[in-house]
Amino acid sequence: MSLVLTIDIGNTRAKYAVFSQDCIIELSTFDPYGNDLKQLTKKFPQISKCIISSVGGKIEECKAQLQNIEIITLSGDTRLPFTLNYEKNQIGSDRLVAVAAAMVEKPNQNNLVIDIGTCITYDIITSDNIYHGGPISPGINLRFKAMNDYTEKLPLCTPTNEELKLICNSTKECLKSGVILGISNEIEGFIKRFSNIYEMLNVFIIGGDNIFFENQLKNCIFADSNFTFKGLRYILNYQ
Known about the structure:
Layout: E1 3-9, E2 14-20, E3 23-30, H1 36-43, E4 47-54, H2 59-65, E5 70-73, E6 83-85, H3 93-105, E7 111-116, E8 119-125, E9 130-138, H4 140-149, H5 171-197, E10 202-206, E11 221-222, H6 227-237
Parallel strand pairs: 1-4, 4-5, 6-9, 7-10, 10-11
Antiparallel strand pairs: 1-2, 2-3, 7-8, 8-9
Helix pairs in contact: 3-6
């Protein structure tokens, strides 16, 4: 039985998942500059196809390790299971994957996918399978870094899951509350505005930093680590 390889390269890390039909049989991070993928194809010689989504480059480095495998590099020019209402030469592959995964989970429904990573992106796939791009704003660490870089005295903070306060007793508490609660309010505001446009809206929260909002955001679906790979698999099946 042939297997397929799905690769997701973000701004901070690269991940892969190997599928046998619709089941993931191996999932891991990897080093695009090493031999991880080459070793993977030796372990699973049945891999016949691969799809790569990348916002962090390193595509050619991956291809060099994947010999004799059909490879699709995801872009706006790829055959997609939905219609783009967006300039296809400007759309990020990560946004395409996100809405494809939402279609797998909630087909033929209005879905909003909020990806909380280096940046925060808002993407809509409607019940008639049309993709609409939404706002992009800075992510958690970009906000912390900006306040540290562009001021003389504000320290650099990192996000935590500790309780956040409105009444703060230190500068670090103020910064953390301002960023995390500020993003929560931003997300809730966008959800409300999108819900006024699209009826019965499903909201998916994805991305590496979504863990900091599980106690902040209600009535949202916090996607598991397989969400992106399901989207990649769905797009690959459509080719």
